[in-house]
Amino acid sequence: MRIVLVGPPGAGKGTQAAFLAKNLSIPHISTGDLFRANISQGTELGKQAKAYMDAGNLVPDEVTVGMAKDRMEQADAENGFLLDGFPRNVAQAEALDAMLEREGMKLDAVLDLEVPEDEVVKRIAGRRICRNDSAHVYHVVYNQPETEGVCDVCGGELYQREDDSEETVRKRLEVYHTQTEPIIDYYKAQGLVATISALAKVDEVTERAMRALQGRGDQAA
């Protein structure tokens, strides 16, 4: 299956992408991984992306699309893939469609993870990270430490990242609504969108997504 996963920040896209890709035996391709791999490997596209990023500029669509194209042409993606974070806007969605059409392929489904805006803010703004080890993550509501402000694992101080402040989260949501959300209507016109409520436990959301995929591709049938 060839799937695009969309949803606002805090919807759990990364977590769901990993579970769905495993269940469907297809690679999980995320924009972050694409950038890190190309930059670390020193590819031409990676050098171009790094130059823009170092200058504090947005990486142009053609660079991101080029990275995605190279990744989707690798052997493990022959039978499908799950795209997470790409396409990010309608121009990228159109480029993806054109790319697939040239290869005689098309998308099977677009999964839209739906979460109310206030819930997104609560999920992200409530996160607290250990200063000693950023892998130790807590939440003021959903995953409280035994002692407030102290990491259960190493005793380090817990803090809120600047990117997780409510003001920053709302700005990220504004960008999502302006740039990324329009691709949902773009794909709805193609009959590809399945909207999934992400207000549930991780495994329940995965089950909802798998049910929505039934009949949309050989592996999910």
- Secondary-structure-based class equals alpha/beta
Termini gap? 10 Å
In total, the number of strands is 8
| Rounded average pLDDT | 93
> What is the CA-based Rg, rounded?
18 Å
The helix count comes to 9
- The general outline is globular
The proportion of residues in beta strands is 5-15%
Q: Could you state the order of secondary-structure elements as H and E? A: EHEHHHEHEHEEEHHEH
Uncertain residue segments: none
Q: Biggest sheet: strands, sense, closure?
A: 5 strands, parallel
Spatial order of the strands in the main sheet?
Answer: 2-3-1-4-8
Structure description:
The chain is α/β, with parallel strands linked by helices. Helices cover 46% and strands 14% of the residues. The strands form 2 sheets. Strands 2-3-1-4-8 form a 5-stranded parallel beta sheet, sandwiched between helices. α1 packs across α9 and α4 runs parallel beside α5 (90-102). It is globular.
